[in-house]
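re: ur question from yesterday

yeah so i grabbed the chain u mentioned. its 459 aa long if i counted rite. heres the sequnce exactly as i have it in my notes:
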Amino acid sequence: MDRRRFFSGAVGGAVAAAAVSRVALASVPEAPAQTSAATAPPLLPPDGRPYDPVVTLNGWTLPWRMNGSVKEFHLVAEPVVREMAPGFRVNMWGYNGQSPGPTIEVVEGDRVRIFVTNRLPEHTTVHWHGQRLPNGMDGVGGITQPHIPPGKTFVYEFTAKRPGTFMYHPHADEMVQMAMGMMGFWVTHPKDRADPRIARVQRDFCFLLGAFDVEPGSATPKVNTMTDFNTWAFNSRVFPGIDSMNVRQGDRVRIRVGNLTMTNHPIHVHGHEFEVTGTDGGPVPPPARWPEVSVDVAVGQMRQVEFVADEPGDWAFHCHKSHHTMGPMGHEVPTMIGVEQKDLVAKIQKLVPDYMVMGDKGMADMGAMEMPLPDNTLPMMAGQGPFGPAEMGGMFTLLKVRAGQKPGDYRDPGWFRHPAGTVAREVPDDRAPPAPRAPGAGAAPAANAVQKPAGGHHH
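ran it thru and got these structure tokens back, copy pasting raw so excuse formatting
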């Protein structure tokens, strides 16, 4: 099996077509695919019980068909190419054309039947993370079910017993398959839309946190990495390739976050405070909630936060681990702050023509430099704002709150137009007040002044 065919899915597709008979496939619902990395509009339920749909950031919701009273879905596990940011494409494994796979939306009490076709070059399973279901539907290969061989289609069937925010992912060769991007979101909506534990909101966003180790110049994640990841993503997208969350001023907003990386992520929003209204276990009772501006989402957890978007502007929304808001970087690069390199550059460039001075005053200049990079390499700092380089990447996006954003309109409204006098600005030197001193502090002593010990005694 050569590398090109392995990652293009040509091998898996050929195996699947040969192994699954046309008669068998005739009873399986269509498997829609999506390759666009844009955020799809909410899927309004065409049949079944009504619900208020979510919006998957840089993703989409999987359509279904009704077979009697059962909702039938079709997932295809397959190699995909995910554009993590414009010009940066990564070979991944996912579902139905993307990583993460499509969001599955159902209603509490729905009977659900999910067909899973395996077009990977190895076996797989699907675990329905957080669901209550029969043990044989839990998706742990070798323990609760046989593995799904390449080319075969298995079916899972259970009742969505409780409302909440869930995930799906393999429990087969898990380290490789999840490192390659196999994951997806699941939302079970309440059957009672007036459920007092679950408020109705005007905007409901969801995304998964992902971590990859993609060497500069390469296109395939290193699957044996355990801690030293270099690409941190919302729904397998990195800033500036992540869409903003565009809301109307005054909207009640819900954001659902699931973590399938190998570390925790303190997710932080600017300009607003929120409450954690749901966890892996279900809705948080209202008396148990309190205001926060950051929530730590640990490994394997899901957190649901809600707030009223009443402050207009372009507000940052990001992981508060600073290296998770940067693009790929070498962890072995020495710190050069304070080291004057000018005299060395000419000498080094005779040996290494592409050598650049970097980091002698800090790394902010990296956001403005046009550095020569290997093909298919994400810049360490990227993205431009209305005032210059954003110097951000990875797990970072914007919450755009606008008074004029129409209900149901998720289009990007552009950059915020700040009212006059509301932008931080430079103060002329002659108008700057003197720097304050600590109470009781006098003028700084002269450099050659003799200091007396405490108590005035000389020794």
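noticed a couple things. The mean pLDDT is 83. also The chain is about 10% helix and 30% strand.
anyway ttyl
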